[in-house]
Amino acid sequence: MSPSILPRSFYNRDVLIVAPALLGKRLLRQTPNGMISGIITETEAYNGMQDLACHAHVGKTKRTAVMFGPAGFAYVYFTYGMHWCFNVVTGEEGYPAAVLVRAIYPQEGFDLISAHRAGIKKIRWTDGPAKLTKALSIDKFHNGIDLTTRDANLWIEEGIKIKEDDILVNTRVGLGKTPEPWLSKPWHFELDSRSFLGGL
DNA sequence: CGCCCGATGTGCT
DNA sequence: GCACATCGGGCGT
Predict the structure, then answer these.
(1) What band does A2 get if pLDDT is binned at 50, 70 and 90?
(2) Is the CB of A179 under 7 A from strand C?
(3) What's the rounded Cα separation, in Å, for the pair A45 and A179?
(4) Which positions of strand C lie within 7 Å of protein CB atoms?
(5) Which of A10, A23, A34, A108 pairs with A160 at a CA distance of 20 to 30 A?
(6) pTM for the full model?
């Protein structure tokens, strides 16, 4: 295993620690046609059965089972009839929590991304959770895969150094009718774009 | 830039 | 039935 791949111990911590810690890390996807990668710039934490915005609040079902498993595995779900979203499972086995990766800054594989995102302006290639999965060809076949090896052609490595001051904290996006206090939890983490552009 | 809306399938009530 | 951790096009500001 490459020493730069994030180890399971990175993920096996509280989701509220892992979500901001993922900012600046490198998401890599080895496709049959070449490598695609990008720097993670936006994440959100979904924290246990008590969190009514977390899919796992309904309990352990076929859909949410991965979140109840050990840390460092991918939770990929289908939504709105056409979109895939990519999460990483965190924390102890049995406690359902995951980080939604909401945006990345493309680094490698521009030709492949351009093909996957035909007709879309470069600035909009990967600035949303379902946009980045389409750009990287992430779908149901990645649900449950181990992110701490290269075996499933999808993993996360060390990336750029981030300063605490460059992390913007906000409430989570797109929660619709989720009740308080969950609606207003400051569990959305984003890199100030000026910081990572300088760090590349 | 912002708001509005249609697309489109699955999971849970 | 209906809500959904969304997206992109269209149109007004």
Answers:
(1) low
(2) no
(3) 16
(4) 3-9
(5) A34
(6) 0.97
